[in-house]
Specification:
The protein folds into 2 domains: 48 residues; 134 residues, 2,3-Dihydroxybiphenyl 1,2-Dioxygenase, domain 1 (Roll). It contains 5 helices and 9 strands; from the N terminus they run ααααββββαβββββ. A 5-stranded mixed beta sheet has the order 4-7-6-5-9, covered by helices on one side. The protein has a 4-stranded mixed beta sheet with strand order 3-2-1-8, covered by helices on one side. The structure holds fe (ii) ion (FE2).
Length: 216
């Protein structure tokens, strides 16, 4: 302490700056630690709620009892991805489907209302409509069954072509998805169900929205 008291003015200024920087670093470390703890708490609560069979069964039973889609489960999942993981809502058809993004693509994740967890489809971006057609022909030649398309989606505006996956659900080629710049003042839209799926294309398969991972 005596050393500090007897030091020059310049040394005292440097020491003061170092103390301030050190305190600021600790504040940042503590804030990050708190943020991570909070995210972990929410994540564990989410996985307990959605991965726990008894809870999910109860949620599914409630949905069956009320005769409607378990939209509240989807809404809660949507809040988790937005509030905890920082994704943004791009568009939705309320209670049915929500499209979320984590970059400039219109969506990187879509949540579809269902009575149980399940994976509906993965989508693979290609460089043109030609490439969609080439992929579709090649897959059909290799024995894969067509699913739906070629068409153009309303939400996201992308061209699509679906093939059946080995579990009866779908796998999609897409091109020309909407681009949302990082600083764009994009306002999520809420589409009525009858105007949410496709602008043009063949009729949608009757089982398109089914969750093929539900066994009962
Ligand atoms: Fe898709």
């Amino acid at each position: 302490m005596e050393l500090v008291t007897n030091s020059t003015g310049a040394t005292k200024v440097v020491l003061f700056i170092l103390i301030v920087l050190s305190l600021a670093s600790w504040c940042i470390i503590f804030a990050k630690w708190y943020e991570i703890r909070r995210a972990l708490r929410v994540t564990y609560a989410f996985s307990r709620e959605f991965a726990g069979v008894p809870t999910l069964e109860r949620a599914a039973q409630r949905a069956r009892d009320t005769g409607g889609p378990p939209a509240s489960i989807m809404e809660r999942a949507m809040r988790f991805y937005i509030e905890t993981l920082g994704m943004k809502l791009s568009d939705r058809s309320r209670g049915i489907i929500a499209f979320l993004r984590c970059n400039t693509d219109h969506h990187t994740l879509a949540l579809l209302s269902s009575h149980a967890p399940g994976f509906h489809h993965a989508s693979f971006q290609v460089g043109s409509v030609d490439e969609i057609a080439m992929g579709a022909v090649r897959m059909t030649e290799k024995g894969w069954q067509p699913g739906w398309g070629l068409g153009r989606h309303v939400i996201g505006s992308n061209f699509f072509y679906y093939l059946r996956d080995p579990w009866g659900s779908f796998s999609e080629y897409y091109f020309d998805l909407d681009y949302i710049p990082e600083r764009c003042a994009w306002e999520p839209r809420d589409f009525p169900p009858e105007d949410a799926l496709y602008v043009w294309g063949p009729s949608c398969p009757a089982d398109f929205g089914e969750n093929k991972e539900v066994w009962t």
